[in-house]
Amino acid sequence: MYPLQNGIGNLIRSLFPENAMLINSTISIISLLLLVSLLPVFLIWLERKVAARFQARIGPMRVGYHGLLQSTADGLKLIFKEILKPEGADTFVFFLAPILPASATFLVMAILPFDHHLQVADPAGGVIYVIGISGLSILGILLAGWASNNKYSLLGAMRSGAQMISFEISLALVMLLIVMITGTASLREIVLSQQGSVLDWWIFKLPGLGAIAFLMYMISSTAELNRAPFDISEAESELTGGFATEYSGISFAMFFFAEFVNMFVSAGIASTFFLGGFLAPQIGIGVIDMLFLLIPGFIWFFLKTFAVIFLYMWFRWTFPRLRVDQLMYLEWKMLLPANLILLMAAGYFMAMGWVL
Amino acid sequence: MKKKNSPPAVLLYLSKCSTGFLSLLKGMGVTISYFVQPGKIVTQQYPENRDELQMMARFRGHLSMPRDEKGDHGCTACGICEKACPNGSISVLTTKDISGRKILGKYVYRLSQCTLCNLCVESCPYNAISMGRNFELAVYDREQLTFVLNETKGELQ
């Protein structure tokens, strides 16, 4: 229904007019699968390197150049490990649970606009799709905790479920704000609404409110990702690993990989909503603007996304973990009222025409 | 129980938001200062930099007996270090010189029993012994871990 519109898609349409639909879909699925399986390998290496530098260490150095193959080696080790199932665990649910978060990230990845015409699908309700699909990863964590037949897993999953459901409200409200000011829920249209100079990105528009909305998106998406300082679902020191306690081998690797792809997806959505997505930054100096326009859009998308990912890593290795009650206090008493006021203020700004 | 004179809830909320946010920014400033300064990295690439590796000044390796330029040590065989040692890893065996004065015969140090606690060095009134910086101390036989410090001529440095 949403065929590829770029050069590759058109080439295949001209070569095989009858089977173009099938071939294009296969190509897009394979490329997404490749991205989903290769990204976490790089992101885990990046996370370890960045964490090391924040702690005055150097991180993995032995496997490959500066440890580049370290996470590949770790992944291979996990694949060859025995998969254990605890006694009394629900077999079907136990092995279903790791698949859900992994497939959720894959499904959201399908609608990320990597470039003008580098997007597998562009549904009109893309934002609603993102919110709906990210619920799948909550389901995966809850099922994992429930099926493990282990009190630590159950506690971790319940904590995590409560956390993710609460913070999804804030996340959805921030997304609603963007949908309100752009007037569209399609991710591609949201990016295209930020055309112009850097100051046309939503983070700098609606004087002050755009930046506050970006800040709130960062807080609630960090919580949604179960990353520190909101990692109470794992909380190694309290819960011996939370929902992933009983998982080993490839099923653990799937949780782990899904976590990192989720981070990429979340950062990608942040750059789509607030940082102009695949648009080149135009700072108003003719020569530099021309040079920036020569760089393809997907490189800008990846640059912006990795900047946001660095921000997530910076948060993780700086802030201490919140207690469960502090987490709920933050969401229901601090973030949610602020979010509702922000939404109203943005509506007022829109009505007065102070969009800039 | 509501406290008297507490500021209104909205002000409390705003002050919490701003102070919390500022303290978070301060923390992020500390971590990024480590991130952008490669000189602060403490990790040592050990087997590769074995030749130029310098252990820290406060590192405690095995016990050693430093000599001065003439090759003399400062030990008077008083035996205070032997009494201070909790594991009995030091034995000060005395002898007598021609004039009948008690001098050091053999300073036996058993690395196999030593926990490198530094109590002997702290108790020594003459600063005759110190902790070395050598850490590659593994050998194949326990016998090789017993040293006579005043006879090794400082080769255990």
Describe the 3D structure.
The complex is a heterodimer of chains A (356) and B (157). Chain A is globular and about 65 Å long. Chain A has 14 helices and no strands. In chain A, helix 2 packs across helix 11, helix 3 packs across helix 11 and helix 9 (209-224) packs antiparallel against helix 11. Chain A starts with 6 loop residues before the first helix and ends with a helix. Chain A has 356 residues and is mostly helical. Chain B has 157 residues and is an alpha+beta fold. Chain B has three helices and five strands; from the N terminus they run αβαββαββ. Chain B has helices spanning 9-35, 80-84, 119-123; strands at residues 63-64, 90-96, 102-110, 130-131, 146-148.
Give the topology.
The complex is a heterodimer of chains A (356) and B (157).
Chain A: H1 7-15, H2 20-54, H3 70-80, H4 91-96, H5 99-109, H6 126-147, H7 151-182, H8 187-192, H9 209-224, H10 236-239, H11 249-274, H12 286-294, H13 297-316, H14 324-352
Helix pairs in contact in A: 1-2, 2-3, 2-11, 3-11, 5-6, 5-11, 6-7, 7-9, 7-14, 9-11, 9-14, 11-13
Chain B: H1 9-35, E1 63-64, H2 80-84, E2 90-96, E3 102-110, H3 119-123, E4 130-131, E5 146-148
Antiparallel strand pairs in B: 1-4, 2-3, 3-5
Quick take:
Chain A is 66% helix and 0% strand. Chain A has 356 residues and is an all-alpha fold.
| Cα-atom radius of gyration of chain B | 27 Å
* Alpha-beta content class of chain A: mainly alpha
- As a whole number of angstroms, the C-alpha radius of gyration of chain A is 21 Å
Work out the helicity level of chain A: 55-70%
Q: Mind describing the biggest β-sheet of chain B?
A: 3 strands, antiparallel
Q: What is the total number of structural domains of chain A?
A: 1
CATH architecture of the largest domain in chain B: 2-Layer Sandwich
Distance between the termini of chain A: 36 Å
Instruction: Provide a count of the helices of chain B.
Output: 3
Strand content of chain B: 5-15%
Give the CA-CA distance, first to last residue of chain B.
69 Å
The CATH topology label of the largest domain in chain B is Alpha-Beta Plaits
Q: What is the share of helical residues of chain B?
A: 10-25%
